[in-house]
């Protein structure tokens, strides 16, 4: 990357900061871009679950912008920090993961991140490389570089302390460990979600303590989940996975509250602020039907992870099976086996993890047999031929009797 003129710097600055809700500091970012060298950019992800979702993709797409601009990008997988547990945004202790859980989750992270990142141009590092070998005396020296008062400046810690909610000492180690990542990599820029700002700023502090130029901290908004209220999270069941099948991704977006359509257009799809604002004005003014807008956003989400053809097919499937209540062209097939009751078949078909969950589905009115709502949790399974069993508007299976 050679020296660049002021106009090119400003264009790159505008593109890289677009969609960020905090840049610490803008002046430093402009100055480093003006140096004309590739910036060292890092993003850390802890393998806290087996799957990434489209909320993670918001910051991954920002990281990809740095890749496309020719910068030196590193994705740090928190093999070590996941053992501590990130307290960001938590009002209670986050249980640390076991080594077995971490290893299982890590197996899918890089592959799934590759749906957004050009991994051939990204360095993949595990922070256990430098954190695991540390001696206790090194940890003590690190902790001496900050104070308890500084830790309590962090909102989630302060709120828990004021409420008398326990804070374990090891939780203070998390932002310190993340800061060490920045020192080891000599990062110019660190990316994260809004809830990571304290951790990112701690990186600046430790770099200055180490004699390095402090990193620029850039945060992006957190994407709300399907309820439109709280941050997307697999543990809350309000997520859209990067590897969810096209029809499932499309259907989940269609469950969003109407007021979230423009926000998803901006954050989940990456439309410009002007486009998202125009979409919101159209919905508010009545010139754009929320259903049509939502289908457009849903199609764009699916296209990002499965391609445009799959997105069009997912839209057609939704319109056929949900809006017109027609059966899908293809559906899985299962054998009822020795099932004696409908709740048994729901478990066999994979629609429920237990008979109790199956009973809840039936009581909720979401179970249908050949299009007819089933309302009796104690109903016997008496079918002698194939039956289309459906749960909700998008889950179908054709059930055959034993021996068929």
Q: In words, what does this structure look like?
A:
This protein is 46% helix and 12% strand. By secondary structure, it is α/β, with parallel strands linked by helices. The protein has three domains: 215 residues, HUPs (Rossmann fold); 80 residues, Tyrosyl-Transfer RNA Synthetase (Orthogonal Bundle), CATH 1.10.240; 68 residues, RNA-binding S4 domain (Structural Genomics Hypothetical 15.5 Kd Protein In mrcA-pckA Intergenic Region, Chain A). The strands form two sheets. It has a six-stranded mixed beta sheet, sandwiched between helices. A five-stranded mixed beta sheet has the order 7-11-10-8-9. Helix 11 links the parallel strand 5 and strand 6. Helix 15 crosses helix 16. The mean pLDDT is 89.
Which features does this protein show?
single chain, 404 residues, alpha/beta, Rossmann fold, Tyrosyl-Transfer RNA Synthetase, Structural Genomics Hypothetical 15.5 Kd Protein In mrcA-pckA Intergenic Region, Chain A, six-stranded mixed β-sheet, five-stranded mixed β-sheet, 18 helices, 46% helix, globular
């Amino acid at each position: 990357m050679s020296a660049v003129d002021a106009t090119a710097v400003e264009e790159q600055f505008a593109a890289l900061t677009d969609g960020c809700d905090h840049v610490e500091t803008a002046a430093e970012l402009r100055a480093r871009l003006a140096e004309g060298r590739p910036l060292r950019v890092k993003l850390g992800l802890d393998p806290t679950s087996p799957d990434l979702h489209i909320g993670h993709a918001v910051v991954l797409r920002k990281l990809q912008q740095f890749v496309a601009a020719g910068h030196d990008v590193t994705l740090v997988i928190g093999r070590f920090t996941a053992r501590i547990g990130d307290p960001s945004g938590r009002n209670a202790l986050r249980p640390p993961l076991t080594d077995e859980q971490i290893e299982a989750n890590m197996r899918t992270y890089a592959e799934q991140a590759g749906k957004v990142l050009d991994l051939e141009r990204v360095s993949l590092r595990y922070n256990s490389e430098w954190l695991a070998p540390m001696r206790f005396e090194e940890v003590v020296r690190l902790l001496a570089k900050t104070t308890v008062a500084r830790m309590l400046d962090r909102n989630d810690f302060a709120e828990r302390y004021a409420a008398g909610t326990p804070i374990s000492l090891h939780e203070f180690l998390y932002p310190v460990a993340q800061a060490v990542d920045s020192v080891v990599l000599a990062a110019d820029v660190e990316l994260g979600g809004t809830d990571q700002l304290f951790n990112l700023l701690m990186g600046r502090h430790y770099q200055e303590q180490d004699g390095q130029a402090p990193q620029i901290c850039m945060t992006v908004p957190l994407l709300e989940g399907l309820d439109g209220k709280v941050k997307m999270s697999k543990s809350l069941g309000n997520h859209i996975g990067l590897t969810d099948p096209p029809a499932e991704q499309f259907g989940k977006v269609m469950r969003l509250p109407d007021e979230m359509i423009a926000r998803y257009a901006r954050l989940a799809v990456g439309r410009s602020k002007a486009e998202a604002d125009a979409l919101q004005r159209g919905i508010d003014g009545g010139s754009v039907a929320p259903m049509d807008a939502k289908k457009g956003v849903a199609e764009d989400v699916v296209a990002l992870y499965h391609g445009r053809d799959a997105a069009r097919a997912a839209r057609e499937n939704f319109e056929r099976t949900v809006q017109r209540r027609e059966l899908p062209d293809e559906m899985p097939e299962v054998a009822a086996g020795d099932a004696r009751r409908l709740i048994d078949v729901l478990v066999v078909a994979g629609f429920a993890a237990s008979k109790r969950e199956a009973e809840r589905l039936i009581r909720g009115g979401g179970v249908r047999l050949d299009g007819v709502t089933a309302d009796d949790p104690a109903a016997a399974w008496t079918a002698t031929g194939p039956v289309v069993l459906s749960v909700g508007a998008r889950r179908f299976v054709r059930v055959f009797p034993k021996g068929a």
